[in-house]
């Protein structure tokens, strides 16, 4: 895990930090953390830009992270990479007993880079 990714985990719930670190050791697709804890101002800017649709993002409380796939040192957004990363997150979550939600499993507005602690277990 890069120093930059570790810095982006500042303020993120410790259970999610542990999950990200284990997923990084399990995944066949390298990834970097692009965002963890967000300010309300940043969230509103993302809504205005069309990159988010909610004012109640789990990022605001440190219960979510976004990642980006890295291939040959370059960020890649190709969809097939993200289910492979998600499999590592889900395996780590099962091993740690941490309930998570992957944005790629959402029925609408699928968000492959997004992982969050399940609201039922982590309100």
TrEMBL record:
GO MF entries: peptidase activity
InterPro entries per record: Peptidase_M15C (IPR039561), Zn_M74/Hedgehog-like (IPR009045)
Domain of life: Bacteria
EC numbers: 3.4.-.-
Peptidase M15C domain span: 53-117
Keywords: Hydrolase
Protein name, entry field: Peptidoglycan L-alanyl-D-glutamate endopeptidase CwlK
Organism: Brevundimonas lenta
